[in-house]
Design a protein that fits this description.
This protein is α/β, with parallel strands linked by helices and 269 residues long. It has helices at residues 7-10, 53-60, 101-109, 120-126, 142-154, 172-187, 199-202, and strands spanning 15-24, 27-37, 42-46, 68-73, 86-89, 160-164, 191-195, 208-213, 216-222, 229-230. A six-stranded mixed sheet has the order 5-6-7-3-8-9, with helices on both faces. It has a four-stranded antiparallel sheet with strand order 4-1-2-10, with helices on one face. Helix 3 crosses helix 4 (120-126) and helix 4 (120-126) packs across helix 5. The protein starts with 6 loop residues before the first helix and ends in a 39-residue tail after the last strand. Residues 1-10 and 225-269 have low confidence and may be disordered.
Length: 269
């Protein structure tokens, strides 16, 4: 069994969410989510639309702040204070159609003053693209657009990769190549968090698969024998304790997931 949450434990975490809830008006997008993410692991978030997957990623990226609870990265820093160490890839590619890939990446590298970034050419090579292509980004296939977007994310050499639907609109071969790229990044001790509706595509690199339902951690499945996800008080190698939320039965949807004493079946409490 692991020790309860402590400073010693937090120093080994890439990121920690402690009873994090996010409200949009009366709607609770996340409900008291508590989890540690360890270096060199891949976490796959699944769930229906509106389950809270993208909200969780945006909070980890420092683009949203929780309504309640605390989120820290890299041993205690707030995500918005460590954005250069976090790579976030959203649904939109966030690149300019009228520029080439190198021109796009050259611009985005300039947004990280004082941080040693990959060269645009090296970032493109890492994702399997030819840096000498003269076509503009708007002429790229969907698979090439996703790869270029990933290259943008990799420019500052982030330690935490947050990828929102990276396989969206990709053909099977392009998705397979994306998984192979991510497997290499995982082996370099980076933490990867992926949201996807295509769980089977991410299965080869998933240490843990978390299913969110109505903002709660509803279930989890280990993706490999050496699992990297720990919620306080649990043995990360045990499916009965690795996702335990304080004081409850990990198999129960009511376990430790109530929002301020509310009915766990209510979407607005």
């Amino acid at each position: 069994m692991n020790a309860p949450a402590s400073e010693a434990v937090s120093s080994t975490c890439c990121a920690r969410l402690d009873r994090v809830s996010k409200l949009f008006g009366s709607f609770a997008a996340l409900r008291q989510v508590s989890v540690d993410l360890e270096p060199g692991r891949c976490y796959v978030l699944i769930g229906e639309n509106g389950a809270g997957k993208s909200t969780l990623l945006r909070i980890l990226a420092g683009l949203l702040r929780p309504s309640h609870g605390v989120v820290t990265v890299f041993g205690g820093r707030a995500p918005h204070a460590a954005r250069a160490r976090i790579g976030y890839m959203s649904h939109a590619p966030m690149l300019y159609d009228e520029l080439t890939a190198q021109e796009n990446l050259r611009y985005f590298a300039s947004l990280y003053p004082g941080r040693a970034c990959l060269s645009p050419a090296d970032a493109l090579r890492q994702v399997g693209l030819d840096p000498d292509l003269t076509r503009t980004f708007g002429q790229y296939s969907q698979g090439m657009r996703q790869r270029t977007s990933l290259a943008r994310v990799l420019l500052p050499v982030p330690e935490l990769l947050l990828l929102d639907e990276p396989f969206s609109n990709m053909d099977v071969e392009s998705a397979r190549q994306m998984v192979e790229l991510l497997a290499g990044f995982r082996q370099s001790n980076r933490t990867i968090v992926i949201t996807t509706h295509q769980r089977e595509l991410a299965a080869p690199i998933a240490d843990w698969v978390l299913r969110l339902h109505a903002g709660r951690v509803a279930s989890f499945e280990p993706g490999s024998p050496e699992t990297g996800l720990r919620l306080w008080g649990g043995d990360p190698g045990s499916p009965e304790t690795g996702l335990r939320l304080r004081g409850g039965d990990p198999g129960s949807p009511e376990t430790g997931l109530r929002l301020w004493g509310g009915d766990p079946g209510s979407p607005t409490r």
